[in-house]
Amino acid sequence: MWEQVQQTVDFITEKTNFTPEYGVILGTGLGSFTDEMTIDYILPYSEIPNFPISTVQGHKGALVFGTIGDKKIVAMQGRFHYYEGYTMQEVTFPVRVMKQIGIEKLVVSNASGGVNPNFQVGTIMLIKDHVNMMPEHPLRGKNDERFGPRFVNMSEPYSVKMIAKAKEIAQELDIVVQEGVYLALQGPTFETLAEYRMVKAIGCDCVGMSTVPEVIVARHMDMEVFGLSVITDMGDAENIEAVSHQEVLEASKKAEPHVRLLIKELIKQY
């Protein structure tokens, strides 16, 4: 994988001559965050060597290079999911590349199903921790020390300092945010009522099908990570809403202006 990453890095460096500090992975319905950026380059995934291609509606499929304030950023419009049939190495490949082109801080966003009764559709949840229940691990196999250590300390997967700064910014901007624990399942089915009960019983606040593999790999390479979830549907112990991907897209679109503003200010100020 090291050689593949270097090949991709060489291609990107040659095309852009751009050294970003921040990486942003934009989840379902949040792709227009790039409107906040002064854009320098756009590279479609299909043109980048060794890059997978996103197959999910709401995920555009391009690397966008630009600035917010004086910070240089590369944003992923659309991520890759294990349920699409990719290996965990393919899912997390872009994070490896981001680190090698200079990125030290990673911001990840997603849409998720809420089980915390204090949440509602449209709630913005800052991820303070996660539970990984995906059936495969992105670090399984021989470890390449050039990327990071064999055993990764996960005592602080999400930066406490970045969370504190985001809460401060949210308060200033009058954006209501919650904090919580994200549980990752494989998908692509939405959860059953019994599965929602399980998520709640083991102490999690929401459930989704992404993010955790990228965060594990980012921490493997000692990147500082900030994550947030937009709650796009709710499942509680008594009932469950019938939910479609279209409804998830619509719910995330409603929260998007607040998410965009929060991420933008966090990048500018942190």
Brief characterization of the structure:
The protein is α/β, with parallel strands linked by helices and 270 residues long. The protein has helices at residues 2-16, 88-100, 160-173, 193-201, 212-220, 245-269; strands at 22-26, 38-44, 62-68, 71-77, 105-114, 124-132, 177-184, 206-208, 224-234.
Features:
270 residues, alpha/beta, globular, Rossmann fold
Tally of DSSP helical segments: 6
Instruction: Tell me the CATH superfamily.
Output: Nucleoside phosphorylase domain
Note the overall shape. globular
Helix residue percentage? 25-40%
Mean pLDDT: 91
> Largest sheet, described in full?
5 strands, mixed, barrel
CATH topology value? Rossmann fold
Instruction: Give the strand line-up of the largest sheet.
Output: 5-8-7-6-9
Write the layout of secondary structure elements.
Elements: H1 2-16, E1 22-26, E2 38-44, E3 62-68, E4 71-77, H2 88-100, E5 105-114, E6 124-132, H3 160-173, E7 177-184, H4 193-201, E8 206-208, H5 212-220, E9 224-234, H6 245-269
Parallel strand pairs: 1-4, 1-5, 5-9, 6-7, 7-8
Antiparallel strand pairs: 2-3, 3-4, 5-8, 6-9
Can you describe what's shown?
With 270 residues, the chain is of the alpha/beta class. It has a single domain (2-269), classed as Nucleoside phosphorylase domain (Rossmann fold), CATH 3.40.50. It has helices at residues 2-16, 88-100, 160-173, 193-201, 212-220, 245-269, and strands at residues 22-26, 38-44, 62-68, 71-77, 105-114, 124-132, 177-184, 206-208, 224-234. The protein has a five-stranded mixed barrel, surrounded by four helices. A hairpin with a 2-residue loop joins strand 3 (62-68) and strand 4.
